[in-house]
Automatic annotation (TrEMBL):
Catalytic activity as recorded in UniProt: UMP + diphosphate = 5-phospho-alpha-D-ribose 1-diphosphate + uracil
Cofactor: Mg(2+)
Encoding gene, per UniProt annotation: upp
Protein name: Uracil phosphoribosyltransferase
Organism: Mangrovibacillus cuniculi
InterPro entries assigned: PRTase-like, PRTase_dom, Upp_B, UPRT, UPRTase/APRTase
Length: 209
């Protein structure tokens, strides 16, 4: 069964509180989402494999470590997931970026896929699917399904705010996928919004309504 990790680092929690604040405008919302994504990327890459090398320092030779060159892929769920990409790429700039376009039908809350573009070597990459919100879980479940259908075998899911319903949906549909979140909120309301949440992530990121 997939594991759930809540990143309770003080910097992540502090910035997340500012993101939640209804008085935080688009510019700050974007900047904070970017910063939180960088901090979460630091945590999520903890288990990247290293290999031994020798490096010449000004003083002597040293036995040291470098990243073993694992192939990574970031896949934002459009549109709100885009707000997390640059923050992650600051730490892992060589990662390839795929895209899955989904929107939630406002009536049925079911995800509707409208775009998919992934790196060609899907089978060889470790993917991190990103989206600020995990609400009913419909979008994340469908995005992960979309990657698997195209051959992806190693997938993590990372978001800012989740609720129990969304976490359960991923666990049930994709028990092989670990989930990384900054906060696990209380519940969904009747409109499918996370309570207390942060509102509509896409609209707040892009200044639309
Ligand atoms: C939001 C959010 C997730 C989805 C979460 O996107 O960014 O993708 O809802 O809800 P779910 O877990 O119930 O599927 P939205 O559909 O509003 O599209 P947008 O990113 O284009 O704003
Ligand atoms: N999508 C959002 O952007 N916010 C929510 O609370 C739920 C889904």
């Amino acid at each position: 069964m997939g594991k759930v990790y809540v990143f309770d680092h003080p910097l992540i929690q502090h910035k997340l509180t500012m993101v939640r604040d209804v008085n935080t405008g688009t510019k700050e919302f974007r900047e904070l989402t970017d910063e939180i994504s960088t901090l979460m990327a630091f945590e999520i890459t903890r288990d990247l494999p290293l290999e031994d090398v020798t490096v010449q320092t000004p003083v002597s030779e040293a036995s040291a470590k470098v990243l073993a060159g694992k192939k990574l892929g970031i896949v934002p769920i459009l549109r709100a997931g885009l707000g997390m990409v640059d923050g992650i790429l600051k730490l892992i700039p060589a990662a390839k970026v795929g895209h899955v376009g989904l929107y939630r039908d406002p009536e049925t809350l079911q995800p509707v896929e409208y775009y998919v573009k992934l790196p060609s070597d899907v089978e060889e990459r470790d993917f991190i699917v990103v989206d600020p919100m995990l609400a009913t879980g419909g979008s994340a479940v469908e995005a992960i399904h979309s990657l698997k259908k195209r051959g992806a075998v190693s997938i993590k899911f990372m978001c800012l705010v989740a609720c129990p319903e969304g976490v359960e949906a991923i666990k049930e549909a994709h028990p092989d996928v670990d989930i990384y979140i900054a906060a696990l909120d209380e519940k969904l309301n009747d409109h499918g919004y996370i309570v207390p949440g942060l509102g509509d992530a896409g609209d707040r990121l892009f200044g639309t309504k």
